[in-house]
Amino acid sequence: MPVPHPKPGSPDGGERPGPVLTIGAAGRPDRPSGDRLPGGSGPPRHLADLDPQERRAAAEQLGERRFRADQLSRHYFARLTDDPGDMTDVPAAARGTLAAALLPRLLTAERELSCDQGQTRKTLWRALDGAYVESVLMRYPGRVTMCVSSQAGCGMACPFCATGQAGLTRNLSAAEIVTQVVAGARALARGEVPGGPGRVSNVVFMGMGEPLANYSRVLAAVRRITDPVPDGLGISRRAVTVSTVGLVPAIGRLAAERLPVRLAVSLHAPDDALRDELVPVNRRWKVAQVLDAAWAYADATGRRVSVEYALIRDINDQAWRAEALADLLSGHLAHVNLIPLNPTPGSKWTASDPEVMREFEERLALRGIPVTVRDTRGTEIDGACGQLAAAGRPGVPGAGAGGTGIPAGGPGR
Ligand code: SAH
Prior knowledge:
Layout: H1 52-61, H2 67-78, H3 92-102, E1 107-115, E2 120-127, E3 132-140, E4 143-147, E5 151-153, E6 168-171, H4 174-189, E7 202-205, H5 215-226, E8 240-244, H6 248-257, E9 262-266, H7 272-278, H8 287-301, E10 305-311, H9 319-329, E11 334-340, H10 354-366, E12 371-373
Parallel strand pairs: 4-7, 7-8, 8-9, 9-10, 10-11, 11-12
Antiparallel strand pairs: 1-2, 2-3, 3-4, 5-6
Helix pairs in contact: 1-2, 4-5, 6-8, 9-10
Bound molecules: S-adenosyl-L-homocysteine.
């Protein structure tokens, strides 16, 4: 089966305009987080790109008092507003200067779709340069999960995932990622989501893009999302999940941060022959290397690793593969999420039969592997795993390229 490859030598998928970050062999990004792009391209700087020190320095550079930065942080992260009109504790003149310089509107909601009586909401966002991304809010009894995009498009080219098909447009800035969460938090706080006022409890990097291919910005976003209010949104680090195809050096780097965020690894096959096809980056980092990195991550953080496995009829759902998967995971700190494949437009693949899924699950369970089958949320609005398809076709539901994982019963447990 012909499978598109990520461009050689570029684990994050090759050439593209805008704020692109490549991860070198040692997993080090080529640029620190939060800085402006050379030549001024890419999204403008935003408060949420900066840590509290950098925000104060930025206020000073604008000729304002340093504490104004803290006031701005409180408005943005605690009161969830970026409207200067709301900032009555800041003198009117300073408000304009600060908001213009530090609170640009990075994303505009182009379209909003909901299902599950409004408890699942997908937003199509348009960035200032015209790039499209999507985020999904999922409300469950007792928790709300925001599924966010880390890149416009994706360079990983997994053939079953809609996002992978059109390639990578660009990395998102930290603030463009954080903005997706703030928008969800704001809608909840204002009671716009059925079920009464609420808060975002979980964030999963399972929207468009490969988060570890945009390492420094994703990490900065995680810090903004988890720093205590008002420096950040105050969401528990344990309630954040970073999902990856398995960029081994970057997994090592994340482990070294000692942040107790959950790592999800998109495995989808226990054997290299099949995984080479389903997750093409496997040609660079094999199953054994990915899992070694995952176990090191579990050791470093004490967190159980989520192993994502999309069940594809007659492709990866055989009994022997369930046993092979159990062999790999047995004795390790892991949990398997089985995801019935969400067919993407034009794909020849479909989800496994329920009976086959049950058997696959049972085989793992019998071997003592914790396993759950995700109930996929958002399929009707093309908001489920692998269906996010924002790239360039905002008027056509489900068209285009975006693919993503929406964990319906997923992370956050
Ligand atoms: N690039 C990251 C995060 C985005 S995808 C990663 O690959 O982990 C989030 C999850 O949804 C991944 O496990 C991905 O493999 C899965 N996924 C993608 N397309 C899917 C589809 N069509 N059906 C089911 N799951 C899919």
